[in-house]
Amino acid sequence: KRRWVGKTVLSIFEEEFPVYRQYQGPCIDGGRIRVNDRRVERSFVINDGDQVSHIFHHHEPCVFDMPIEIISNTPELVVVSKPPSIPVHPCGRYHFNTLFSRLEKEFGFVGLHALNRLDQAVSGVVLLGRNKQSSGKILEDLRTGAVRKHYIARVWGAFPETLTVDAALTWSAPHLRTVRVAKPDEDAGKASVTRFTRICASRDGTQSLIFCEPISGRTHQLRVHLAHAGFPIVGDLVYGPNPAPGRLPQVLHGQAGKLPGGSAPAPMPAAPLPACSSGSRPGDLPRPVPVPVRSCPSPALSAACEEEDADADAGRQGDGLARVPHSDVIR
Questions:
Q1: In the annotation, is 119 catalytic?
Q2: I need a surface site. Which of 8, 143, 221, 244 has the fewest CB within 10 A?
């Protein structure tokens, strides 16, 4: 920028980013702010044509320490059990700890197409097409309802034997991607229906394990419908009550469904419940296992990473997260 010419590198950063003044001097001294890819003094004067760079790195948030399980592997389709806490695609703060990145690194799968998606906190079956032809067929079956999806959830409260929730959904905060039940006079709500069946309940009646069958497929439908019915999912930090001690993981699991095949639907391979899904005590969760970012594109960045790794690892150990091995009608 022309206005930088003739100014010192320190004064430029102090004027442009005044909030970070305590950080900028040591950053120049440590070689993380550079000019023309060279270390300089704080008093270095910028000339026309100089290139100023700021080298930094950060660690991805911790994720649950669970393996990805390959349920089925055919020339047309790969079916996997996604552990909770990782997104399907690289997004936001996640690049390495994603389903696609881990499948490539751990199993060598490349060029897959996600045919269904699960929220980051949700575990369960994910269908991955190997080519456009097979992917297009299954996507059409998903769109028309020929492929049906079932879920298992652990919820707060003594759930009734059966329950159907018929409540339209609409965005409550689109920029945050949160959903709410639409008011009766709102036209924006999309029709949403879910059937629930109780599997079992805890002896004290504080939690229940339930079978969920979404008739429609809306964003956060199961989570919002269960919260609306008064039975929020255990560990749901968005639609549930205040988190319990120990920060339990959200327990919503896409277990199985039906794939079309011949004259009758064929069962979709079932994903087993995460090992922690049946436990409710904070002590059931393993200790945090940090995931350091070790891939550095340049020697300068590598040096910066080495200087900061110890502090970053200590910070992640204390963040409370872990890589963990996962009829009435209401309107």
A1: yes
A2: 143
327: nearest Cα among 205, 166, 171: 166
Q: What is the DSSP string of 227-241?
A: HHHT-PBTT-TTTSS
Residue 124: what residue type?
A: G
The set of residues, in sequence order, having a beta carbon less than 8 Å from that of 152 and lying 6+ positions away, is: 199, 209, 210, 211, 212, 252, 253, 255, 273, 277
Which are the contacts of 73, defined by CB distance < 8 A and separation ≥ 6?
A: 79
Give the active site residue among 29, 119, 204, 284: 119
Joined tokens for residue 6: 């003739």
Q: Which amino acid is at 239?
A: Y
Q: Are 121 and 85 in contact (CB under 8 A)?
A: yes
Kindly report, residue by residue over 123-172, the tens digit of the pLDDT: 899 999 998 888 888 888 878 877 788 899 999 999 999 999 999 999 88
Q: What is the pTM of this model?
A: 0.62
Q: Which residue from 39, 71, 42 is spatially nearest to 55, judged by alpha carbons? A: 39
